[in-house]
Amino acid sequence: MERRHAIDQTRNSITAASLSALSRRQRADLSGRTDGVIGVLFAGKWCGPCEEFVQLLRRCYAQVRDSGEQFEVVFVSADKDREDFEHLSADMPWWRIDFDDFPSLNKMRCLFKIQDIPCLSLVDMASGQTIISNACDLVREHPDGRGFPWRPRSYEQLMVDGLLDKDGQLCDYSRIQGAFKALYFAANWCPPCKAFTPELREMAGRICSRGLKFEVILVSSDRTAESFEQHRGAAPWLAVPYAQAGRRRELAERFGVQGIPSLLVLDQHDRLVCRNARAHVAEDPLAQC
Question: Who has the most CB within 10 Å: 29, 132, 223, 230?
Fold first, then answer.
């Protein structure tokens, strides 16, 4: 029942908003739309990267629609005045929520939990479920729309390409089947990560010394290959290769990781058993539980 309510709320929030088609200058209602994908675009003229992203999205939008995909976009403005709103949306070939429709604008921002812009959330209109909470990086990587709508792969599919071992060699994920796994989302440039990594290394050592099968998998947010290698040198765990940025991003998306450092634990059957394991490390540094 709760899932059904969430689906209905997502769809109704999009379709109940006051929309205007810039290309036709007329009111429209998407309440009858039950197929295809709707992208909810959050952006503002005052945000430098937003204008550049809007141009990329225009290209992607045209390519996807030309390929026969059912794709609509709804613009949710973060502008403070109508002049900026009109400037940014003037050439948009898609829908927009009216600048004066404050209830709908605020509801959309809250529903999608927007923290940064630009943000493009992709919603499956058949189910009302969010496909991707923020597809901006995917649009930047694939402005031609290749792979749209970029539906997330399962955890099992994401592990097919293997992991780097402590020697930098690619190993098969089956090597750690039957073990508990801790997915560690972190970066060498992040001060809180640098402080937490030694704590995690010590705890992992204590757990393994008791004969338990326990593996840490680094999912890095490092910005350079050099930084990534320095990170692995400080804690030579298994790691998702630096070159596989899309895969690292998909893992963060799949588990809803919003910030770093973040640590979550999977059991021997790859089921999520602890989403905020970082707090448990702080509360139980001797791994007594």
Answer: 132
Instruction: Check the CA dihedral 75-79-82-88 and report its sign.
Output: negative
Any long-range contacts for 123-126 (C-beta under 8 Å, 24+ apart)?
Answer: 123/10, 123/11, 123/14, 123/37, 123/38, 123/39, 123/40, 124/37, 124/149, 125/11, 125/33, 125/34, 125/35, 125/36, 125/37, 125/38, 126/34, 126/35
What is residue 10's predicted lDDT score, i.e. its pLDDT? Answer: 55
User: 69: which 2 tokens?
Assistant: 């995909």
Q: Tell me how far apart the alpha carbons of residues 289 and 284 are, in angstroms, rounded to a whole number.
A: 7
* Distance between CA atoms of residues 95 and 19, nearest Å: 6
Q: How far is CA 255 from CA 98, 129, 165, in A?
A: 34, 16, 23
Q: What pLDDT is recorded for position 234? A: 85
CATH 3.40.30.10 residue ranges in the chain? 2-141, 155-283
* 155-283: CATH superfamily: Glutaredoxin (3.40.30.10)
- Supply the pLDDT for residue 6: 43
CA angle 44, 49, 53 (to 5 degrees): 85
User: How high is the mean pLDDT in each 10-residue block of the chain (289 residues)?
Assistant: 44 56 44 78 95 96 95 94 94 91 88 91 87 92 93 92 93 94 96 94 92 95 94 90 92 90 95 92 60
Alpha-carbon distance 193 to 175, whole Å? 27
What kind of architecture, by CATH, is found in domain 2-141?
3-Layer(aba) Sandwich (3.40)
Measured in degrees and rounded to the nearest 5, phi and psi for residue 223 equal -95, -15
CA–CA distance, 164 with 166 (Å, rounded to integer)? 7
pTM: 0.68
pLDDT (0 to 100) of residue 14 = 61
Q: What is the dihedral of CA 129, 135, 138, 143, to 10 degrees?
A: 100
Residue 62 is predicted with a pLDDT of 97
Side chain identity at 173, as an amino acid letter?
A: Y
